[in-house]
Amino acid sequence: MSVNKARIFKAPEHVTVTGKSIFLAGSIEMGAVEDWQTALTAKLAHLPITIMNPRRDHWDGSWVQDISNPAFKEQVDWELDSQDRADVIALFFHPDTNAPISLLEFGLYAPSGKMIVCCPEGFYRRGNVQIVCDRFRVEFVDSIDELTARVIKKLEG
Question: Sign of the C-alpha dihedral, residues 59, 60, 61, 67?
Fold first, then answer.
């Protein structure tokens, strides 16, 4: 039986990084796609790492998405700060989503050297993602299983 060693933080919790850290970026679409962040967290829980998950337990879809909304600003700032702090950013583009914020974050952090991108067949901008990954030497994989294996290898290395 494996012991849970990871420290897990969800937005908007205050994050204290211990050991290596990972940010789980990518498609959320609350309720529209599977909660891949929780599944990946379970597979990483045995590692002595810090996991930052932007999937907020109490998201309010009616929030005005504007800088004047303190709750919305807190969420976006938490995500950007967490990605800045992370050693690894695991980014998943679910094929059933458009993921405009994930594409924005991809553009921001592709040159950082800390991304691993999973973009399965069927994502509507897969070619663009492949080309940016090639340009910035970002690890690119086709499945969540490959993403999990690469993330574990990078965090253990």
Answer: negative
Q: Is the pTM of the predicted complex or chain greater than 0.90?
A: yes
CA distance linking residue 130 with residue 76, whole number of Å: 26
Q: Which pLDDT tens digit goes with each residue over 26-58?
A: 998 766 778 899 999 999 999 999 999 999 888
Alpha-carbon distance of 37 to 94, in angstroms, equals 12
d(CA 38, CA 143): 16
Do residues 116 and 89 lie in contact, with contact meaning Cβ atoms separated by under 8 Å?
A: yes
Angle, helices 100-109/70-85, rounded to nearest 10 degrees: 40
| CATH domain 7-57+85-156 topology | Rossmann fold (3.40.50)
| pLDDT mean over 128-153 | 98
The residues spanned by each domain of the chain are 7-57+85-156
Q: What DSSP character marks residue 95?
A: T
Q: Residue 19: phi, psi to the nearest 5?
A: 70, -160
